[in-house]
Design a protein that fits this description.
The complex is a heterodimer. Chain A is mostly helical. Chain A is built from 13 helices and no strands. Chain B starts with a helix and ends with a helix. Classes of the chains: A mainly alpha, B mainly alpha.
């Protein structure tokens, strides 16, 4: 078995069995990509972007109105502080506006925006890490959690716990696990969002899982008498 | 249950969570009010620098061409002198 085969095997489990197809599933195939690009909403977005590029700033308002809920959902995975979350959503739209001239229309605007949002979130985590402003949940708390509790937990509580749990990892590891497992994106979607190659995504996810396992193992050893 | 399974189970629950609704249109438009668009903001100064450099470079290039034409080509001179230099003539 080659390394790539082993990584494929590793990566297909267990997220694919549990997770529904991600919102960027259309990117996985050439037909899906073409259909997404030629959809009426994508054509409408492309026309609105052209208007913005011709100096009509008000046209951008329509794009913000159309996508603020989607961007809000993405950024909620990066910060659960309502104020910071709001600032991040705003930062995404400002960055997108500044890079609008680089939007080539080869992918739908929504996908392009999702990539900017992912980069903004990753940047925020790196800044947070450098500033040492991270408050992680003790791993023992999670290592001792019964399986049934994880399956029936309140969604908001689960989201908050997961967020703080992944803070134990580096921003890069955290990003790949968030995209693959929390957002349930496929390898190709994750590669599209991060700008990494698919092999890079698989290797990074494998390393991140290994680090996480090591952290849990250490936590269990600390709990055991 | 290992770490990855735990993450997957929590993630399945977390995906059911509704993210907060935010209304950022006003703030974004206010932030953009004074900003030029990306292409103008970043390319604009570069265009001016490029134009200024081209304007400076043109007379220098013309002067260099005139000097070159007036000057004997050193390589040509060396080639012409080669047989005598080698004692062949």
């Amino acid at each position: 078995m080659t390394v790539t085969q082993a990584l494929n095997l590793w990566d297909g489990w267990p997220a694919r069995a549990v997770a529904p197809p991600g919102p960027l599933a259309a990117l996985s195939s050439a037909d899906g990509r073409r259909a997404a690009k030629e959809s009426p909403s994508a054509r409408e977005d492309a026309a609105t972007v052209r208007e913005c590029l011709h100096g009509n700033k008000d046209a951008y308002r329509q794009l913000v109105e159309r996508y603020q809920a989607r961007v809000s959902a993405i950024m909620w995975r990066f910060s659960r502080d309502p104020e910071l979350h709001r600032d991040l959503v705003q930062e995404v739209f400002v960055s997108a506006y500044e890079s609008l001239a680089r939007f080539r229309g080869q992918a739908p605007f929504e996908h392009w925006l999702a990539r900017i949002a992912t980069n903004t979130g990753h940047g925020y985590w790196r800044r947070q890490r450098r500033a040492g402003a991270i408050s992680t949940v003790p791993l023992e708390e999670c290592a001792e959690m019964p399986e049934e509790k994880a399956e029936t937990m309140d969604p908001q509580e689960a989201g908050a716990l997961l967020h703080r749990l992944l803070e134990h990892l580096s921003p890069r590891d955290r990003l790949v696990l968030t995209l693959r497992y929390v957002e349930a994106h496929s390898v190709s979607e994750t590669a599209e969002l991060t700008g990494w190659s698919e092999t890079m995504v698989k290797v990074q996810a494998w390393r991140a899982r290994r680090k996480l396992e090591a952290l849990f193992k250490r936590a269990r050893q600390e709990v055991a008498p | 249950m290992n770490g990855t399974e735990r993450i997957v189970k929590l993630a399945a629950r977390a995906r059911l969570e509704a993210p907060p609704r935010v209304e950022v249109v006003g703030d974004v438009m206010a932030a953009l009010a004074d900003r030029p668009q990306g292409s103008e903001a970043r390319v604009g100064p570069l265009v001016w620098v490029a134009g200024f450099s081209a304007a400076l470079a043109l007379p220098v290039a013309l002067a260099a061409l005139m000097v070159w034409q007036a000057w004997a080509h050193p390589l040509l001179a060396a080639l012409i002198d080669f047989p005598s230099g080698m004692g062949l003539q």
